[in-house]
Amino acid sequence: MASNKKIATLAGLAIALLAGRASAADNGWIDSASVEFGSGSKVRIGRLAVQKNWDAQWFASNGRHLSGYWDLSAAYWRGTAYRNVDGQHQNLAVVGITPVLRYQRDDKLGWYAEGGIGANLFSELYNNSDNRLSTAFQFGDHIGIGYVTANKWDLGLKFQHYSNASIKRPNSGVNLLVASARYQF
């Protein structure tokens, strides 16, 4: 029951973040918002996030450069093999912040590649389908590709890995394939 309260709190936080999006975008605090869906070994996730672009360009050459953004996210995870028992469910809430590096065109349209490593806090310890994480704090890293359209939609696909970097064992890690749709204000 405490997990459901944590999930409800996380969902409320995500809604508040997105509801305040217009005001925050007007003030320059948020540049975009995204919705993501992913899956791994007997786990599905849904995530809402807001982003803030960095005002920096590195290694600019031939109309491309390296830049990045901050990503603040709230996610819901649903495992279907809690404690390695098929049909037993584990519901988790996860909040995270990730600095992301992106190699893209100077006009920020078309194809890009990106990668990031961030900090995440789980509502409880993950124990699903032979994967166990022994700490609520986890690093989340990803590599991905995507395409930004002329009408400000950013469609991406990324491989995501969660692990506590062996701070405490067991630490089998969790791998996910995640699809995202992001709208830039």
UniProtKB/TrEMBL annotation:
<dbReference type="GO" id="GO:0050528">
    <property type="term" value="F:acyloxyacyl hydrolase activity"/>
</dbReference>
<feature type="signal peptide">
    <location>
        <begin position="1"/>
        <end position="24"/>
    </location>
</feature>
<dbReference type="InterPro" id="IPR011250">
    <property type="entry name" value="OMP/PagP_B-barrel"/>
</dbReference>
<keyword id="KW-0732">Signal</keyword>
<dbReference type="Pfam" id="PF09411">
    <property type="entry name" value="PagL"/>
</dbReference>
<comment type="similarity">
    <text>Belongs to the PagL family.</text>
</comment>
<comment type="subunit">
    <text>Homodimer.</text>
</comment>
<comment type="function">
    <text>Has lipid A 3-O-deacylase activity. Hydrolyzes the ester bond at the 3 position of lipid A, a bioactive component of lipopolysaccharide (LPS), thereby releasing the primary fatty acyl moiety.</text>
</comment>
<keyword id="KW-0998">Cell outer membrane</keyword>
<feature type="site" description="Critical for activity">
    <location>
        <position position="164"/>
    </location>
</feature>
<keyword id="KW-0378">Hydrolase</keyword>
<dbReference type="GO" id="GO:0009279">
    <property type="term" value="C:cell outer membrane"/>
</dbReference>
<dbReference type="InterPro" id="IPR018550">
    <property type="entry name" value="Lipid-A_deacylase-rel"/>
</dbReference>
<keyword id="KW-0472">Membrane</keyword>
<protein>
    <recommendedName>
        <fullName>Lipid A deacylase</fullName>
        <ecNumber>3.1.1.77</ecNumber>
    </recommendedName>
</protein>
